[in-house]
Write a structure and sequence with these properties.
CATH class of the largest domain: Alpha Beta
Number of domains: 2
Strand content: 25-35%
Oligomer: single chain
Number of helices: 4
Shape: elongated
CATH superfamily of the largest domain: ABC-type transport auxiliary lipoprotein component
Structural class: alpha/beta
CATH architecture of the largest domain: 3-Layer(aba) Sandwich
Length: 238
């Protein structure tokens, strides 16, 4: 047989062995990571009863600072809790943005719908305002491992008189909503309902603060509004 024939056989044999090895290696590789699922916080129509139409409240302007979030709750990862003090994250499910950033336009919309202010502005802005609203997400989590599971949303809010930088009212809100399942989707659905419940309470708080502040004499507007307790908390379970 010719040298060319032996060379051809050798090359074909080598190629077959390489293909066999590649096939065997592919069975050892880990399965591909599934693509992540993305979820959003969205607001339904969130309103408080319309404020009384007075010249004082119509003249009051409000600037809302970008919401902040406590440590552990300031990322796009969706948190679930199986035991106290331990935060865990769903591996393949995320928020489309951080909860704090998603919450900002929802707060503006909820406060505007009360008609309690002449203007509601989201910071940063060059506009001046009478009052400033600051909010912080304390927790937004899916609590699993017990029946029924639930989503919990806790928010702290306080008002500042911008002329003096004095805090005049503060309140903490919390809502828990039973989740349909212990899946990420079940937690996200319940979380949306909890957020909407807190926004309703926040809108009422803003309306009440505007009405009380507008009745204060000009020389007392830096004082804390009577009846506002820094340790108070409102909320409910659904």
């Amino acid at each position: 047989m010719s040298q060319h024939f032996f060379t051809l056989i050798f090359r074909l044999t080598t190629a077959s062995l390489l293909l066999a090895l590649l096939g065997a290696c592919s069975t050892w590789l880990p399965p591909p990571t599934p693509p992540p699922h993305f979820y959003a916080l969205t607001s339904a129509q969130t309103t408080a009863p319309p404020a009384a139409a007075t010249t004082a409240t119509a003249a009051t302007t409000l600037i809302i600072s970008p919401p902040q979030a406590a440590a552990g709750f300031n990322s796009r990862r969706i948190i679930y809790v199986r035991q106290p003090y331990q935060l865990e994250y769903y591996a393949h499910s995320e928020w489309v943005d951080t909860p704090a950033r998603m919450l900002a336009p929802m707060i503006v919309s909820a406060v505007e719908n009360t008609a309690a202010f002449g203007a509601v502005i989201l910071s940063p802005s060059s506009a001046t305002a009478d009052l400033g609203l600051h909010v912080e997400i304390i927790r937004l989590q899916h609590e699993v491992g017990r029946q029924p599971g639930q989503a919990r949303f806790t928010l702290r809010a306080y008002f500042v008189a911008n002329a003096t930088r004095q805090i005049i009212a503060t309140r903490e809100f919390e809502q828990t909503v039973t989740a349909d399942s212990e899946t990420p989707y079940g937690g996200v659905t319940a979380a949306n309902l909890a957020v909407r419940g807190v926004l309703r309470e926040l809108a009422i708080f803003c309306q009440e603060t505007s009405e009380k502040w507008s009745k204060f004499p000009v020389d007392r507007k830096a004082e804390k509004i009577p009846g506002e307790n820094s340790g108070s908390k409102t909320g409910g379970t659904k």
